[in-house]
Amino acid sequence: MGLKASSSLLCLAILLGVSSLASSVNITRALENYPEFSTMIELLAKTELTPIINKRQTITVLALSNDAIGSISGRPEEELKNILMNHVVLDYYDELKLKALKDKSTLLTTLYQSTGLGQQQNGFLNCSKANGKIVFGSAVKGAPLTAEYITTVFRNPFNLSVVQISMPIVAPGLGAPVKVPPPPPMTSPPAPSPKKAGATPAPGPAEEEDYADAPPGAAPETAPASAPSEDGSPAPAPENAGKKKMAAADEVEPPSSASNTGLSFGAVLVLGVVASFAGF
Ligand SMILES: *[C@@H]1O[C@H](CO)[C@@H](O)[C@H](O)[C@H]1NC(C)=O
Ligand SMILES: *[C@@H]1O[C@H](CO)[C@@H](O)[C@H](O)[C@H]1NC(C)=O
Ligand SMILES: *[C@@H]1O[C@H](CO)[C@@H](O)[C@H](O)[C@H]1NC(C)=O
């Protein structure tokens, strides 16, 4: 009896431990094994956003690497806080969900919107599919969609997802815009490549062009004949780069069972507790 009681208590203690571990959103813990996001974690703490994020139950953080966040890390604290709040999406989006989005563009609500300070949609983000890529920008009309989806760093469906993007999103009204960095040689640039410089830098036409450029057999959804740089150069290189990147992202996609393990472990423990109580 004494033994049974104590083993029941032990089970209960473990169960509680497991469930609180599996349940809580903790952005610091989610990224603690990723030193390339240490600056973002520091800045979230400095601007006192960490506890606000951790209180949420369903959240996606658009994460910036130490390099990428350099362009905003020195801004005044209040400005920085507003900008960072625009990188916290009040919904769950991981790679699977982003790729499954049917609409060409989706409006995402951010933490900044929840402050009530949002103006002209600057508390929202526009997530669009362009050039075979997923891009983010402020939802303010005319704002550039220059932050590219890179990978899903952490996912705990459907509570916390951390998605890496290529550069900060600074909505109009929240600070000076960040310049799009020049495209690195082998990875996909966030903007249409210089090769297609004949076209406008706006993402719209480039998107159509990508569909038009789709390889035969890929069954393009739309193939507008009006793609601006079609006549110039077919330029398959950037598209291939985009494809490679998506393929790479597919490869690193973690299995969705991570958090299920916690759940089923918990369920087994519940059974154990019930069973040992039933044994009295
Ligand atoms: C995870 O999110 C769901 C809703 O999406 C919520 O019902 C659940 O309570 C959350 N889990 C925790 C432990 O916060
Ligand atoms: C979140 O995780 C960090 C690192 O593991 C830990 O130091 C911190 O206490 C956790 N915060 C909460 C609220 O559990
Ligand atoms: C997102 O941006 C694109 C390109 O600027 C635009 O065509 C689209 O209407 C926007 N979507 C939303 C939901 O605002």
TrEMBL record:
It is found in: Cell membrane. The keyword Cell membrane applies. Residues 24-154 form the FAS1 domain. InterPro entries: FAS1_dom_sf, FAS1_domain, Plant_FLA. Keywords: Cell membrane, Glycoprotein, GPI-anchor, Lipoprotein, Membrane, Proteoglycan, Signal. May be a cell surface adhesion protein. Belongs to the fasciclin-like AGP family. PANTHER family: FASCICLIN-LIKE ARABINOGALACTAN PROTEIN (PTHR32382), FASCICLIN-LIKE ARABINOGALACTAN PROTEIN 3 (PTHR32382:SF67). This is FAS1 domain-containing protein.
